[in-house]
Write a structure and sequence with these properties.
The chain is an alpha+beta fold. The protein is 26% helix and 15% strand.
């Protein structure tokens, strides 16, 4: 698969150059579709802000129209992409994350650095330290590190960006992985949850569920994955189970996961060690 290492911010800047009349290379069909979706997301954001202002002023407001207009633009972009034989749903941001341009969720990419770090696709985490509470290493180590350490040096704790300043002994840059501090485990479509983790499953991938048993995941999440590769130069997925945030209501000592060997949902004992992938945002 051809890698697309262009972030949303850079993509918007390119669009700005086009609007300004600056000569730039014509985008290929994938990038053109992605640009359209990025612009649709920006227009949605502006629309929602405007409706919020109307609400605060006591005027009639309608946020649903913002969502409907966004959905319409996404549907049109996907229809055009299908006709051209391409897919443009996911955008590798080039910083260790991937954005789902249809749902506006941002996903953590995994690597294969073989060090047991939080981004290593083969690092295991528990859901609970006891019986049922969400206090296992998936929360106390994995998510805590993503949300409370500096982006460029995860051994340095932070609360605000200033904590990561070189003058304060940090590496520079932002607090939180990729500059965000709202990373969480994804939901699955069980017991009131939404199908977030299932949304990156792709059972049409060659080798999914049959020899050679490649991970049943959209190719952007298993791109350039070789031994010892590190973020952001690769994106890896193990053909195994990844935790969700949803407990098994029928068996509270268990929580739901998605197994990327087949793309199915399973329940595991919460004190069992399996893999984890973080997500943030969404509509």
């Amino acid at each position: 698969m051809r890698k697309v290492r262009i972030g949303v911010t850079v993509m918007v800047a390119c669009v700005g150059l086009l609007w300004a009349g600056v000569a730039v290379a014509a985008p290929d069909p994938v990038m053109k579709c992605q640009i359209g979706k990025v612009l649709a997301a920006k227009k949605r954001e502006i629309c929602l802000a405007g409706e919020k202002e109307r609400e605060l002023k006591g005027k009639p407001f309608d946020t649903q129209k913002c969502e409907d207009e966004f959905d319409e633009k996404i549907a049109k972009a996907d229809t055009k992409a299908v006709k051209k034989g391409v897919s443009c749903r996911f955008l590798n941001n080039g910083d260790g994350t991937t954005t789902d341009l249809n749902t506006l969720r941002m996903w953590e990419n995994k690597d294969d650095n073989n060090t047991g770090g939080i981004h290593d696709k083969d690092t295991f985490f528990t859901w609970t330290a006891g019986t049922t509470a969400p206090d296992g290493t998936a929360f106390t180590d994995f998510l805590d590190t993503l949300n409370n350490t500096c982006n460029l040096l995860e051994t340095v704790s932070c609360v605000v960006n200033a904590d990561c300043a070189v003058a304060n002994g940090g590496p520079g840059g932002s607090c939180g992985f990729a500059g965000y501090r709202d990373w969480r485990l994804a939901e699955v479509n069980r017991h009131g949850g939404t199908g977030e983790l299932e949304s990156i499953v792709d059972t049409t991938v060659p080798g999914c569920a049959v020899a050679p048993f490649n991970p049943c995941v959209d190719p952007v999440f298993n791109d350039g994955c070789v031994a010892a590769c590190t973020l952001p130069d690769c994106s890896c997925t193990a053909k195994s189970n990844y935790w969700s945030s949803i407990s098994n209501a029928s068996n509270p000592v268990g929580a739901w996961s998605v197994k990327f060997l087949f793309g199915n949902v399973n329940s595991f004992s919460k004190n069992f060690g399996i893999r984890a992938r973080a997500v943030r945002g969404g509509r």
